[in-house]
Write a structure and sequence with these properties.
This protein is an alpha+beta fold and about 220 residues long. It has helices at about 1-20, 135-145, 175-180, 195-210, 210-215; strands at about 45, 55-60, 95-105, 105-110, 115-120, 125, 150, 165-170, 185-190. About 25% of the residues lie in helices and about 20% in strands. A hairpin with a 2-residue loop joins strand 4 (about 105-110) and strand 5 (about 115-120).
Amino acid sequence: MRGRLVMRRGGLAVAGALCATLVAAGCTSGPLAPSRTSAPPAGTTVAATASAAASPLVVSTPAVGAPPRHACAPPYPAGPATVASVFCADPSTMQAARVVRVVDGDTMHVAIAGKEEVVRFYGINATEVGRPCSAEATARTRQLVGGEVRLLPDARDRDRYGRLLRYVYTPQGLSIDAELVDEGLAYAWRADGALRGAIVAVEDAARLRRAGCLWR
């Protein structure tokens, strides 16, 4: 018993010394004290930054078939897009389209006012069919778009193949372009576009945390 007590006191002394050296890093007393930089538990809703205009961010890491990491609701962000606010936009100003079929991670067929069009996502570049991560990106895109989307044009209306170039959103206003990049399933399109800078920043953050198929 006395031996156990000595060992326990020794362990507490070591823990106290270690905590003292980590005061600047936010060490607190008690077992398994949370770090200031640790992420909230899966499914926790946290307040958005001022630039994100209070759109809630769900900070879990999605598995196949899981809900997206971000959720959007009014009031929607206003002003230039940032790495925080790019995930949500007001869908009421966008064109509605019915999803006919998903071709791959960044291409789909939609019906707009009864006419079928091929849409190429403006803000992303997914790997080609047969290449690594293509199957994962295609499956996730199919899940995120569901049966209906909202489309937002930018500087270029169509690509050289005649496909519509559009940022793609859910009916609730979630940017599917940004979500796929955030989950490590697509690269940011870096050539042009109003949302280019914000989505590139999302990619940089995804790479740092080794998110998804592309960055593991």
